[in-house]
Amino acid sequence: MYRESYENCRLCPRYCGVNRVRDDGVAHLGFCGETDQLRVAYVGPHFGEEPPITGMNGSGTIFFTGCSLRCSFCQNYQISHKGLGVEISTGELLEKIEDMIRNHRVHNINFVTPDHFFPHVFRLVSLLRKEGFDLPVLYNLSGYQSVEMLKSAEDYADIYLPDFKYSDSSLAIKLSKCRDYPQVALDAIGEMVKQKGFFDTFFKGSEIAKKGVLVRHLILPGNVRNSMEALTSLFVEFGKGLPLSLMSQYQPIAQQKDEALNRLLSHEEFDKVYSHAMELGFENLFVQFPEKVPGIQTAHSPFLPDFQRAEPFV
Ligand code: SF4
C-alpha cells in the first residue's frame, strides 16, 4: 500500500490521482502541494490543546508540511501554504518522536494534519508500537477525510480530533475550494465516532484522554451563521453528548478578500455562537473564551505559532 498510495494519490477526498513518487526527481503535485517525501515543520511538546490532551507535560505534536484543505485563513499558514518544513526520513522522524517521548514525557503522539502522509504515519505508528511505546495516538484533522482512508487508519489511531469548519458549502468553496466539505466531514466524523466512540475523559473521569473523538469548531469573524448552523448539524447528527470544543482564537494571517476575516472575533459574535451551543444542550463542551479585552480582541494569541522559530509556540 505504501508506494501505490502515492503513485495514484487518493489519500484525501480531493482524489487528485497524481503520481507523487519522486523517484527520478520529478513528481506531480496534487492540491496538498507535497511529493511522497516526508516533510515536517515541528516535532515537540505543545501546550495549546484541550486540557485532557495537553496535561502537565504537553501533547507530543508532529506538524507536517502541506495540507489537503489549505483554507485561506489557515492559522498554520507558513506550513500549509508556504511549504515551511524540512525533509526527513521515516527513520529520522521515528528517532525524533522517541526522543520527544523520553525527554518530555508527553502524554500522547499527536499527528497534526497528517492525511497527505498517511502511509508514512501508519508505518511510524507500527514501528513505535513494535518498540514498546504505548502512548495514545492522536490524529488532528481538518475533517476533510474519506471514510475509506479512515478505515485504513483505524488500527493506528486512538483519538481523533477533527474540525467541523463549515455547514455552508458556499463558504467552504470560498475559503477552502471545497464544495463538498460539509457532507464529507459529517460522514468522516460519523466513521470516527463509530470506530472510537466519544472522547473518554468526559465519561471515565481520567485526566488524560486515551480514546475517542472530540470535534473542534473555530468561529470565524463575520460568519456567525455558519458557526451556528455547524453546531446545529453536529447536534442533529450526533446528539447532545458529542464532545465539542468551541474555539475563539482566530487571528488574521494572510490578507483575506472577505474583510471580516481581516479582524479578530468580537465578543458579541462569540457570545451568539456560545449561547447557541448552550441552547442546543451540548453536554460535553470545551470552551475557549475570548481574551478579556473589551470589544474586539487586540492581544496577541498564544495559539499562533511561528514555525520559523525552533520553538514555534513560545
Ligand atoms: S493527499 Fe494531496 S495529492 Fe493526494 S488526493 Fe489529497 S490533495 Fe490530492
What would you note in describing this structure?
- With 314 residues, this protein is an alpha/beta fold.
- The chain has one domain: TIM Barrel.
- It is built from eleven helices and ten strands.
- It has a seven-stranded mixed sheet, covered by helices on one side. Strands 8-9-10 form a three-stranded parallel sheet, with helices on one face.
- Helix 5 links the parallel strand 4 and strand 5.
- Helix 10 packs parallel to helix 11.
- The longest helix is centred in the middle third of the chain and has 16 residues.
- The protein is globular.
- Iron/sulfur cluster binds next to loops.
User: Number of helical segments?
Assistant: 11
Largest sheet: 7 strands, mixed
Categorize the overall geometry.
globular
CATH architectural category: Alpha-Beta Barrel
At the third CATH level, what is the topology name? TIM Barrel
- The residue fraction in helices comes out at 25-40%
Mean pLDDT: 91
Span of the ends, CA to CA: 38 Å
Give the strand order, joined by hyphens, for the main sheet.
3-1-2-4-5-6-7
Query: Radius of gyration, rounded?
Result: 19 Å
Strand content: 5-15%
* Count of separate structural domains: 1
Residue stretches low in confidence (pLDDT < 50, at least 5 long) are 294-300
Order of helices and strands: HEHEHEHEHEHEHHHEEHEHE
Structural class: alpha/beta
CATH superfamily: Aldolase class I
Instruction: State the CATH class.
Output: Alpha Beta
Q: Got a strand count?
A: 10
Q: Which kinds of small molecule does this entry bind, naming each only once?
A: iron/sulfur cluster
